# Entry
Amino acid sequence: MGLISVEIKLRNLTNHFRMKERIHLSLPHMGGNEEEFISEAFRTNWIAPLGPHVTTFEKKLEEYLSKEVHVASLSSGTAAIHLALILLGVGPGDEVLCQSMTFAASANPIKYLGATPIFVDSEPTTWNICPHYLEEAIKDRIAKGKKPKAIVAVHLFGMPYQVDEVTAISKKYEIPVVEDSAEALGSSYKNQKCGTFGDFGILSFNGNKIITTSGGGALIVKKPEHKERAIFLATQARDDAPHYQHSEIGYNYRLSNISAGIGLGQIKVLDKHVSLRRNMNKFYKNLFEGRNDIKVFTEPSSDYFSNHWLSCITFSDKSDKNPLGMREALSNENIETRPLWKPMHIQPVFKDAPFYGDGTSEALFNMGMCLPSSSSMNDQERSRITDAVLAYIN
# Structure
């Protein structure tokens, strides 16, 4: 009877999920013109990591971001960080300061190059790299005889970091910034687009981002020679010769013409997608309005404009509710949620890396969570989320 009872429960659970289609955290959202550009790539036989779509996509990104930048489209945001660090001369034995609360892709390229990540805690307003602990880390590393080669600062969940403060520290100590804008295309600080503040900027077009090329990313640079150098390294560092000759190590990091075609269709709806994601953030602010124990993550002032790639909430430590309970409640309704990024300094792979901070990022990780934020969300899905959330918190 025990086995039969388990089978019945499993069958009922399966039927429950079939009745309720899954609400995902962040889905790709097509704009309608992508197939036209892909078909053109096939029709003209540009099925390669170069072609007219790649060139046009880069130009469109440059026009969107700023007239002052140049863009190299690549296979991923991780590749962009890797190339940025190479262009900054990072190598074995060097140290790179890195925001701890981020996705592993912000830190992994540091290790690719044989360098050591030095992790810096978050501050509580933007959840991004803390200027106080950043400067403390710089002073301490210099005192130890090891001046860091770069700073990797992240616009987490689309929220701009404290740009003025971080930039001032960068200039004071003459340490360049790699601005990780993987989650922040469409965000801005004081009306300047994210990705254009650092010495180098990076974007991601992964399937769950504001716009997608399926997989892909971009490196944002200030000098045309840096773009030329990045493309050279991204195409296996092939020397200018009639035969295949290589004088240094290169990488297969260039974006394909087909993927760039998807990007051309997506960039047409970029602003619309940003608006829809921001509307999701307003939806959650309305949903949790009046509750002092649950706070929706939003801009600290009018200087900040977040694309709200993911809408997030934090629970007060005095609340009788918690992230685990809410995640389980929504999961039972086939609604996907996720914890905030687990800080790098408490990840097993980076457990021996130096860390500077006061535990802010760990507290956020323990008391925060990400909610479904797709730009394609419809009213029926929002209604399901509302019912599931209210059933749990009430």
User: Anything to note?
Assistant: The chain has two domains: 34-267, 270-393.
